[in-house]
Write a structure and sequence with these properties.
five-stranded antiparallel β-sheet; 4 domains; DNA polymerase, domain 1; Uridine Diphospho-n-acetylenolpyruvylglucosamine Reductase, domain 2; globular; alpha+beta; Uridine Diphospho-n-acetylenolpyruvylglucosamine Reductase, domain 3
C-alpha cells in the first residue's frame, strides 16, 4: 500500500493504483474511487476500505473478469503496470458496470505502459463497453479496419482473431466485495473526533472543525495542509522538504461545502478535482448557457488535469493555494474574477484570486495563518466570454508548457471591449496578468486591428526581464500569441452567432482552429497468417496467452520487492554526483553515519581489487574515487536497516567538489576544444568533393536538437544474497538481459 512494490512516489505512472471506498452516513452513499498508493498517506485512510489487486481475485480462489480478460487479450508483457490497469478498470466497473468508451479512456488516462503497447489493453477494455466500438462503415456492415478481403489473396489464409470472447466469464456486479459493515457502523455511531498519528519524525493531525483548524494553523504556521498529498508528497520524497507537523482538513464540513448563490457557485477548498468536475458538469446542464461560460472554461481545464487517480484525491483549494505556474486552473479562475474565502483566528475575508498573483512570486496577500475555506465561481453575464487554454508535452497526465485564462465583457449590444482579463501560467514561476495589454485594449472594437495590436502588446509585456526561463522562451511566446488568437476566433464566432447582420464572424477555412481535440477509443487490427492443419503443439504464428499473464493481472507474479526478507537483510542507497566534471575534494559521511538504522557508508576504498567492471571495451567505474565525469555518477552508498533510513542518510552525505576545465556540454564547445570521438565516422558514397563542384544548388544550414527529457517508468531494484562459501552470491536482478549480468 505504501507503494514500495511499484511506486515511485510521484503518482505519475499509475502502476500502484488501488481502489478506495468510503461511506457517507448522511446520504447512505458508498463512493469508490481510484488512487495512487505511492502518494496516499496511510493516515488519510481512516475509516476507508482499500482494495488492492490481490483483493480483486487470485488463482487460488477465482480470478475476476477484468483480470481474465486483460491476460487473455494479451494486455501484459512485463506485468509491471498490469495491477494498476486492473484496478483502474475494476474501479470504473464498480461505478459503471456498462461503461462508455469515453469513460473507459478517462479511467485509463492515469496509467502508463512501457512495453505492452496500448492496443491489447484497450482490446480487453472494449469487451466491457456497452456500445459497439466497431465503426460499421463498410457496405456489408463490417468495420473499416477489417481489410482481409482487400489486402490478401483469398488463397492465403489470414486471421485477425487474437482471442475468443466466448471464453470470458461474464461480469456480475452482484458478486463484488461489499463495503465492510464495521466501517459503516463506525461512521454512523462514533462521534467525530480529532485524530493524532505520531510517527518517528512526523505528527499527523486531522481536526473536525474550522475553529480547531484555525487554532492549529496559528500554533503551527509552517505546517502544510494535506488533502490529496499530490504536492506535499513529491516535495517531501524528491526535494528533501521536511515537515514535522502535517494537518489534514478533509473532514471539516466548511471545507467541503457546495452552495449555489444569486451570483454564482461556492465550493469547499477540500473538494476533490473530480467532485468539482462533476458539480460543474451538472451546473452546465442545469443553467442557461449565458450563465455558465466560466463553468465551461474551468471544466475544460479539469478534463486534462492529471489522470483520474490524481483528480480523485487532489483538492481544488490545494491547486490554487500552491500558486505554481503549472496550475491549469489559476489563470482561468483569476481571469474570471473568482473569489477566495479566507479565514484566520478572529477574522474572515474575501479576496479575488487575481490578488494572490499581483506582485509575482513575493506576494504575501495570504499569510501563513490564513486558511482557504472555499472558492466562489461567478455566473457569466450577457456579453461576457471566457476561455481557457493549455499546451503540454502530452494531452493528459502532463504538466503544461504554457496555459492561459481569458475573459472579455462587451458594452451591451456592441463589440466594444468594456473589460478584458488575460492571465498566463508557465511563463514565469507563477501565474501572471497581462495588465498593460488589457488596459490598452478597453474601448476598442473586437476586430483584426485590435488583434494585431493585442499580439504586439502581449509579446512586449510578457518579454519582460526574467519572464521566461529555460530554452523554450520563443516557443512559449508563440503559444501565448496563439492562445489569444484562438480566443479572438472563438469570440468572433460567438458574436456572429448572436448577431449575423452586424458581425462577419471568421472565414470558413479558420473553423478548424475552434474544434476541440476529442480523445476517441483507438481502432486497430493485427493480422497474422493462419496455417490449416497446424499441429496443436506448434505455437508458431498463434496468439497464445502470456504464460505469466494471469499472475501479472492478479498481482501474484513475484518481483524482487515481493521476495521474503532474508535474515540480516540491509538496504543500500546510492549517493550520486551533482556535478558534470569535477575533482572530488572530500566526502563527509559523519552526519549520515549518525542516522537511524545506518550501518556503514561504502566508498571506492572499500572495493577489493579493481574498482571497475566491463560492459563493453571500456571499463565502467563502480564508485568514483578522485573525480566525477557526469551528473548522476555513483560516488558512494549508504547501507541501513530500511530503504527509508538508507535514503534519508544518503541525503546527508556532503561531497565537496573542485570544478575541472573545460566542461564540454555542447557540440559548439566540443568543436572549440577539438574534442572528437575517434575514429571520426562519416557517411559517404562516391566522390563527394567532385559532386559538390558540379551540382546546381548547395543547401546549407544547421539544426539543433536538444537532449530528450528522461521519462522514468519502472522502479529498479536488486537483491544480493551471499551463499556463505567460495565467495559465491545469488543475485536477483530486475533486468531484461540476465546473460550480460552474468558476463559482467
Amino acid at each position: 500500500l505504501t507503494g514500495t512494490k511499484y511506486g515511485c512516489g510521484g503518482g505519475g505512472c499509475g502502476a500502484c493504483t488501488v481502489m478506495i471506498s468510503t461511506y457517507e452516513p448522511a446520504s447512505k452513499m458508498i463512493r469508490h474511487y481510484s488512487a495512487n498508493a505511492c502518494l496516499l498517506p496511510i493516515c488519510s485512510l481512516y475509516g476507508a476500505a482499500v482494495t488492492t489487486v490481490e483483493g480483486v481475485g487470485s488463482t487460488k480462489t477465482r480470478i475476476h473478469p477484468v483480470q481474465e480478460r486483460l491476460a487473455k487479450c494479451h494486455g501484459s508483457q512485463c506485468g509491471f503496470c498490469t495491477p494498476g490497469i486492473v484496478m483502474s478498470i475494476y474501479t470504473l466497473l464498480r461505478n459503471h458496470p456498462e461503461p462508455t468508451s469515453e469513460q473507459m479512456i478517462a479511467a485509463l488516462a492515469g496509467n502508463l505502459c512501457r512495453c505492452t503497447g496500448y492496443r491489447p489493453i484497450l482490446d480487453a477494455c472494449k469487451t466491457f463497453c456497452k456500445e459497439s466500438i466497431c465503426c460499421q462503415r463498410k457496405a456489408n456492415g463490417k468495420c473499416c479496419l477489417d481489410q482481409e478481403d482487400d489486402l490478401f489473396d483469398n488463397e492465403e489464409k489470414v486471421s485477425t482473431s487474437l482471442f475468443s470472447s466466448d471464453e470470458f466469464q461474464p461480469l456480475d456486479p452482484t458478486q463484488e466485495l461489499i463495503f465492510p459493515p464495521e466501517l459503516m457502523r463506525m461512521a454512523e455511531n462514533l462521534p467525530k473526533r480529532t485524530l493524532f498519528f505520531r510517527g518517528e519524525r512526523v505528527t499527523w493531525i486531522s481536526p473536525v472543525s474550522l475553529d480547531e483548524l484555525l487554532d492549529l494553523k496559528a500554533a503551527h504556521p509552517k505546517a502544510p495542509l494535506v488533502v490529496g498529498n499530490t504536492s506535499v508528497g513529491p516535495d517531501m520524497k524528491f526535494r528533501g522538504v521536511f515537515h514535522p507537523v502535517l494537518i489534514a482538513p478533509s473532514r471539516i464540513p466548511d471545507l467541503n461545502v457546495l452552495k449555489y448563490t444569486n451570483d454564482g457557485l461556492t465550493l469547499g477548498a477540500a473538494c476533490s478535482l473530480s467532485l468539482v468536475k462533476d458539480i460543474l458538469s451538472n451546473a452546465i446542464a442545469e443553467f442557461p448557457e449565458e450563465k455558465t461560460k466560466v463553468f465551461c472554461a474551468v471544466l475544460q481545464q479539469l478534463r486534462t488535469l492529471g489522470g483520474e487517480q490524481i483528480r480523485n484525491v487532489a483538492s481544488f483549494g490545494g491547486n490554487i493555494i500552491s500558486r505554481k505556474s503549472t496550475s491549469d486552473l489559476n489563470p482561468v479562475l483569476a481571469a474570471s474574477n473568482c473569489m477566495l474565502n479566507l479565514a484566520s483566528r478572529g477574522q474572515k475575508r474575501q479576496i479575488p484570486v487575481s490578488d494572490i498573483f499581483a506582485d509575482g512570486v513575493g506576494n504575501n496577500t495570504i499569510t501563513p495563518e490564513d486558511i482557504l475555506v472555499s472558492i466562489h465561481i461567478p455566473y457569466s453575464r450577457k456579453g461576457e466570454y471566457v476561455s481557457a487554454f493549455r499546451q503540454a508535452p502530452r494531452r493528459e497526465n502532463a504538466l503544461p508548457i504554457t496555459n492561459a485564462g481569458m475573459r472579455v465583457l462587451f458594452e451591451e449590444g456592441t463589440d466594444i471591449v468594456k473589460d478584458l482579463s488575460i492571465f498566463y501560467g508557465g511563463a514565469i514561476s507563477t501565474t501572471v496578468c497581462a495588465k498593460q495589454t488589457c488596459w490598452t485594449l478597453i474601448g476598442r472594437h473586437w476586430n483584426e486591428q485590435m488583434l494585431d495590436e493585442a499580439c504586439r502588446l502581449v509579446l512586449k509585456e510578457m518579454a519582460a526581464p526574467g519572464s521566461a526561463g529555460g530554452e523554450n522562451v520563443d516557443y512559449k511566446k508563440t503559444l501565448m500569441v496563439s492562445f489569444f488568437y484562438r480566443f479572438f476566433l472563438e469570440v468572433s464566432q460567438s458574436l456572429k452567432t448572436m448577431d449575423p447582420c452586424h458581425y462577419p464572424g471568421i472565414p470558413v477555412e479558420y473553423g478548424s482552429a475552434l474544434q476541440d481535440f476529442k480523445t476517441r477509443m483507438p481502432q486497430s487490427i493485427q493480422i497474422y497468417q493462419a496455417k490449416p492443419g497446424q499441429s496443436p503443439q506448434d505455437p508458431v504464428g498463434r496468439p497464445i496467452m502470456h504464460q505469466s499473464g494471469i499472475k501479472h493481472a492478479t498481482g501474484e507474479a513475484v518481483y524482487i520487492d515481493d521476495l521474503p526478507s532474508v535474515d540480516g537483510e540491509l538496504f543500500l542507497a546510492a549517493v550520486t554526483s551533482s556535478r558534470a566534471r569535477a575533482k572530488i575534494v572530500s566526502i563527509d559521511t559523519s552526519e549520515a553515519l549518525k542516522g537511524a538504522g545506518v550501518f556503514d557508508v561504502i566508498t571506492a576504498h572499500d572495493v577489493p581489487a579493481a574498482n571497475e567492471f566491463y560492459f563493453s571495451d571500456d571499463p565502467e567505474i563502480i564508485f568514483a574515487r578522485n573525480e566525477v565525469i557526469c551528473v548522476g555518477q555513483i560516488v558512494c552508498a549508504v547501507v541501513a536497516d530500511s530503504d527509508v533510513h538508507a535514503k534519508q542518510a544518503a541525503a546527508k552525505v556532503k561531497i565537496e567538489y573542485e570544478m575541472l576545465e573545460p566542461v564540454i556540454l555542447t557540440i559548439e564547445e566540443a568543436i572549440k576544444h577539438n574534442s572528437f570521438f575517434e575514429p571520426k565516422r562519416k557517411l559517404e558514397q562516391g566522390n563527394v568533393d567532385e559532386a559538390f563542384e558540379t551540382v546546381d544548388n548547395i543547401i546549407e544550414g544547421e539544426i539543433c536538437i536538444g537532449g530528450q527529457k528522461h521519462f522514468y517508468m519502472e522502479t529498479q531494484s536488486m537483491l544480493a544474497v551471499p551463499k556463505g562459501e567460495d565467495k559465491e552470491m545469488d543475485l536477483y536482478v530486475s533486468t531484461q538481459h540476465p546473460a550480460i549480468i552474468q558476463v559482467m
